[in-house]
Write a structure and sequence with these properties.
Elements (H helix, E strand, L loop, with lengths): L4 E5 L6 H14 L7 E5 L5 H8 L5 E4 L16 H7 L3 E4 L2 H5 L5 H13 L3 E6 L3 H5 L3 H12 L9 E5 L13 H19 L1 H6 L1 E4 L5 H8 L6 E4 L6 H13 L2
Parallel strand pairs: 1-2, 1-8, 2-3, 3-4, 4-5, 5-6, 6-7
Length: 252
């Protein structure tokens, strides 16, 4: 059975002090931890204080982004070895904001995935379509293309987590219905079965992201191919984040 993951992407929120307070509250309220893998992804400036706070727990810490080189003249970038040395276990790659706001291409994302894996980080790789693409019936073609951009023979399935995030549902208050989410997750599992085989694809975790909140989490988590959530705005308050973790635990 796949162990659900609930990952909180703090985005550009929380100073060190604020981040420390948030993760302390999450830690204090975590009662169903054994059933769910919990990860927080603070801004780079807060990673080390958060890592220090959760060092004796099973809470994992991830980077919100990572560059494709280990060092060099890349002003403003953070390398995978830097994330690993800071205490991160995961890196989020391909988030729609990186694609659509910062113009990251499939080739760059491919290199980022390989660099992160080579540095010993697990990857949470995001895919998703825009509203125009969904209304045009292109959802499956878009996510298949995004999947193929990064997967090749060197990418090990045990180190990968997929996160389906329909762009039209991120930060908009809208979210995919459970039926819509399940359909795309099942499609992604079928495609990865063709790449990695049924055993590896059967163990692959596919998270849903896009306006996940306490009031819709349970209906999403019970879908057979939804293995948790990549949470945005609702992860910035311990109470709402913990409620989503609880919904994931109840689905097991």
């Amino acid at each position: 059975m796949r162990k659900p993951m609930v990952a909180g992407n703090w985005k550009m929120h929380k100073t060190q002090e604020e981040g420390l307070a948030l993760v302390r509250a999450i830690r204090a309220g975590l009662s169903s931890h054994g059933k769910v893998e919990v990860l927080v992804a603070p801004p780079f400036t807060a990673i080390q204080v958060v890592v220090g706070e959760v060092a004796d727990t099973e809470i994992k810490v991830g980077g919100q982004n990572v560059y494709c080189e280990n060092q060099g003249a890349f002003t403003g970038e953070i390398s995978p070895v830097m994330l690993k040395a800071a205490g991160c276990s995961h890196a989020i790659i391909g988030h729609s904001e990186r694609r659509h706001v910062f113009g990251e291409t499939g080739d760059l994302l491919h290199r980022k995935v390989h660099a992160a894996l080579n540095a010993g980080l697990d990857v949470i790789y995001c895919l998703g379509e825009t509203l125009e693409e969904r209304e045009g019936g292109q959802t499956e073609a878009v996510v298949e293309r995004q999947l193929n951009e990064v997967l090749d023979g060197d990418v090990k399935p045990a180190r990968m987590i997929l996160a389906y995030e329909p762009v039209w549902a991120i930060g908009t208050g809208r979210n995919a219905t459970p039926e819509q989410a399940q359909a795309v997750h099942a499609f992604l599992r079928a495609k990865t079965t063709g790449i990695w085989g049924p055993n590896a694809a059967g163990n692959l975790r596919i998270l849903y992201g896009g306006s996940v909140k306490p009031d819709n989490a349970a209906s999403l988590m019970i879908c057979p191919d939804v293995d948790g959530a990549l949470v945005g705005g609702a992860c910035l308050k311990a109470e709402s984040f913990l409620a989503i973790v609880g919904a994931a635990a109840d689905s097991v």
